[in-house]
């Protein structure tokens, strides 16, 4: 699914996730379903060959996505502090309101070492301006465990370094 880029596996809250990475200028495969609409919103905000900044978007751009999205400030390097700026209700149902980074740094990290290693690899690839499409399972708003996908898209305040990640989730029917 990812044209030779690494695939990253990690575990969060006892759930296993598989993350496929793509170059930022590559269109992800059609099998991402409705997430392609979210991807196109992001792609339309590009200016020449520069990935968009969070400030390039308006609240209205995401009508229909608000509950299913998050925006995370990831700092300038993989080691910088990470914090969620926006967390939609359906997104929070899947992941909570804190970042995995906050859980690791709080002294209450995930149970498996692969989670920390996988998350560090994920951050490293996101800081290199990659798109990430992930698959896994999560509890939906009705309390049922369902398969879902999400897409992580890089944002850059200065046009060079990735400063934020914008994410949307979609449950499979």
Commentary on this structure:
With 173 residues, the chain is of the alpha+beta class. It has a single domain (7-171), classed as 2-Layer Sandwich (Beta-Lactamase), CATH 3.30.450. Helices cover 21% and strands 31% of the residues. It contains 4 helices and 7 strands; from the N terminus they run E-E-H-E-E-H-H-H-E-E-E. The chain has helices spanning 35-44, 89-95, 100-105, 113-126; strands at 7-12, 15-23, 69-73, 83-87, 130-139, 145-155, 164-171. The protein has a 7-stranded antiparallel sheet with strand order 1-2-5-6-7-3-4, with helices on both faces. Strand 6 and strand 7 (164-171) form a beta hairpin. The protein is globular. The model has no long low-confidence stretch (mean pLDDT 82).
Named CATH architecture: 2-Layer Sandwich
Number of domains: 1
Q: Under the CATH scheme, which class?
A: Alpha Beta
Question: What percentage of the residues does DSSP assign to strands (E)?
Answer: 25-35%
Q: Which class do the helix and strand fractions yield?
A: alpha+beta
Main-sheet strand order equals 1-2-5-6-7-3-4
Apparent shape: globular
- In total, the number of strands is 7
Helix % is 10-25%
Radius of gyration: 15 Å
Number of helices: 4
**Mean pLDDT rating:** 82
Could you give the distance between the termini? Answer: 21 Å
Poorly predicted parts: none
- Major β-sheet annotation: 7 strands, antiparallel
Which sequence of SSEs, written as H and E, runs from N to C? EEHEEHHHEEE
Looking at the structure, the CATH topology is: Beta-Lactamase
């Amino acid at each position: 699914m990812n044209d030779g880029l690494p695939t990253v596996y990690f575990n969060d809250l006892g759930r296993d996730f598989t993350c496929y990475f793509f170059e930022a200028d590559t269109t992800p495969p059609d099998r991402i379903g409705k997430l392609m609409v979210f991807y196109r919103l992001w792609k339309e905000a590009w200016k020449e060959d520069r990935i968009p900044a969070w400030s390039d978007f308006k609240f209205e751009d995401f009508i229909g996505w608000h509950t299913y999205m998050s925006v995370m400030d990831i700092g300038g390097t993989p080691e910088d502090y990470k914090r969620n700026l926006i967390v939609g209700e359906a997104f929070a149902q899947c992941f909570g309101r804190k970042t995995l980074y906050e859980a690791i740094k709080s002294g209450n990290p995930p149970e498996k070492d692969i989670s920390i290693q996988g998350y560090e690899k994920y951050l490293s690839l996101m800081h290199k301006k990659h798109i990430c499409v992930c698959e896994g399972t999560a509890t939906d708003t009705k309390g049922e465990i369902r398969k879902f996908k999400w897409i992580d898209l890089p944002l850059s305040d200065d046009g060079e370094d990735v400063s934020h990640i914008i994410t949307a989730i979609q449950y499979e029917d």
